[in-house]
Write a structure and sequence with these properties.
The complex is a heterodimer of chains A (346) and B (273).
Chain A lengths: L8 E13 L4 H10 L3 E14 L4 E5 L6 H9 L6 E6 L8 H6 L1 E5 L11 H11 L4 H15 L14 H13 L5 E5 L7 H18 L2 E5 L3 H7 L2 E6 L2 E7 H8 L2 E8 L6 H9 L6 E6 L2 E7 L5 H11 L2 E7 L3 H9 L10
Parallel strand pairs in A: 3-7, 3-8, 5-6, 6-7
Antiparallel strand pairs in A: 1-2, 1-4, 8-9, 10-12, 10-13, 11-12
Helix pairs in contact in A: 5-6, 10-11
Chain B lengths: L2 H28 L1 H28 L2 E2 L2 E2 H21 L6 H7 L2 H4 L6 H6 L6 H19 L6 H26 L1 H4 L7 H7 L13 H10 L7 H7 L13 H22 L6
Helix pairs in contact in B: 2-7, 3-7, 3-8, 8-10, 8-13
The chains are: A alpha/beta (346), B mainly alpha (273).
The complex binds adenosine-5'-triphosphate and magnesium ion.
Adenosine-5'-triphosphate sits at the interface of chains A and B.
Amino acid sequence: MDTNAAPIIEAKGLTKHFRRPVKEPGLKGAVRHLFRPAYADVVAVEGVNLSILPGESVAYVGPNGAGKSTTVKLLTGILVPTSGRVTVNGLTPFENRVENARRIGVVFGQRTQLWWDIPVGESFRLLGDIYELPDETYRASFGELIDVLDLEPLLRVPARQLSLGQRMRCDLAASLLHRPPILYLDEPTIGLDVSVKARFREFIRYMHRERGLTVMLTSHDLGDIEELCDRMVMIDNGRIVYDGALSEVTTRFGWERAVHLTLTEPDESALEAASRALGNRPGAVATQPEPTMVAVTFDSRETTAGELIRDLATALAVTDIRIEEPTAESIIRRLYEGDLVFEQAE
Amino acid sequence: MTWSMNLSRLRGNARLYAKLQLIQLRTVVEYRADFWIGILGASLMHGAGLVFIVALFGQIDELGGWSAWEVAVLYGLTLIPAGLRELFADGPWLLRSLVNSGEFDRLLVRPVSPAMQVATRLASIHGVGQLSLGLTLLILGTTRSGMDWTLWKAIFLLVSVLSSLGLLIAIGFLVNMIGFWEPSAQSAIPTAYAMLIDFAKFPLDIYSNVIKVLVTVVAPYAFISYFPALVLLDKETPWRWLGFASPLVTLLAVLLTSWLWRKALNRYQGVGH
Ligand SMILES: Nc1ncnc2c1ncn2[C@@H]1O[C@H](COP(=O)(O)OP(=O)(O)OP(=O)(O)O)[C@@H](O)[C@H]1O
Ligand SMILES: [Mg+2]
């Protein structure tokens, strides 16, 4: 990745408000709306700044309704922003939809771009015509995708008969047939089984690493994010709350740790003994989830696991000790739940 | 952009249009039962209209100064472009469902004009029925009513059928675009508006002034049958010249539609999932 390169995707102050009709329930409400329509303003995306370099892979995450899909639709030119600017490949997508479409690939998890009734192979040929690919380019690109995604057995099957996993593979191929430099994926792995997911990720990683494909992916599956993306952008209520390396999330918010102790025998008084032993340690809290287990959560900025274990090992009869490090998953979950709070992203 | 580039673009687009439309037609033909039911349905529908006319002319000789065969010409001029539109550009009638379901998203990220993708989204085999019936009526009507065929009348007919087709396609888009403004509306307006075309099957002379204005200005269906027929059949009326205005009306309708279409695309909200 060339860090001096100009961004391939850039958004400045990107904002989208939806107009939603407000109707009171029932026929009476509908009739009233007819004569005096009322609309509510729904803020979906508010002042989003994004700058993505060629060859980057970005995970776009956030709780349901945060504004991820809306952002993707703004970046792909499907929606016209309420205000703000988008530039992709040097173009404003919604002003140059046709030109923009030639240079991007889009995969929507819930929606296929294949023709429902015709064999998959013919859908591909039709896409070749739509993208005006020269014969040679088409054959090379098609051949490679068929190969890597193992689509040969599916080419004669109409899209309607494909299983979800098969359809997803075909859709991926369809979105990359014209060799776009950018691929947007909106919840691509939704509903896929573990092994299909793994192959899917492997393929995206291959295109990203070997072909320099710029990837922007929204997903609720942290596996997708951890395996595919170097960078995470988190949005909440339409605003970006975090933008940085995925690994940094764990260092920035990963100070909450836990020590799990297994006792030699069930002990009613273990919790009390543990609390007494911890007495003066700030931020350390003991619980006893099972009669033979004691768990202590602590703040690694205030105290170390070593000190805690020393205190506890003398107070309790312990057979096993396990120290739990926070994972990106546990942190992101807590961020969604509002347990942790980001400082406003710079 | 040079002329030759424009031309090759146009040719590429035409070829793509044919391919996309062929897929739709093939899909219909593949469901064989649907195909035959479609043909049968269309024949019955328009057959009923014909029975009515035959019965009518069993009672009277003329309708507003038009003989039975002259009315057949009006019928033919109406059915031919309607059949062609149904065959090759029935897609706009799916527009509202595309918009309401959010499937329209997909069309906006393909390097082909969304209008063309919408137009080719559906092909109705019923069109075959309308088209053949229309051709039969036109041929019978013109010959039996003693119209004298000349080369320029043949050209006039061709131009006027094409411009009628253009008008009907524009109207198809126009009425179905309501989905962009009122996404949830189960609107009856598009169907009601389209059904006004039935007025074009009879001479304008028999209608009240309100309806005359309606089918000339509001829903200008008179320009696909009545006015061109005045020219074809050499009818002596002060309104005859309007027969030559058909392409102009189509042009206006197309301009209005494409202006609104651009607005519609920019208003498109999609769905929230
Ligand atoms: N077409 C629309 N009309 C009205 N409101 C909409 C529309 N599309 C999205 N919204 C609203 O905008 C907000 C953001 O929606 P968006 O689909 O972008 O969320 P998301 O982050 O993709 O959520 P999810 O994880 O559930 O897919 C939501 O409050 C949603 O209800
Ligand atoms: Mg979404």
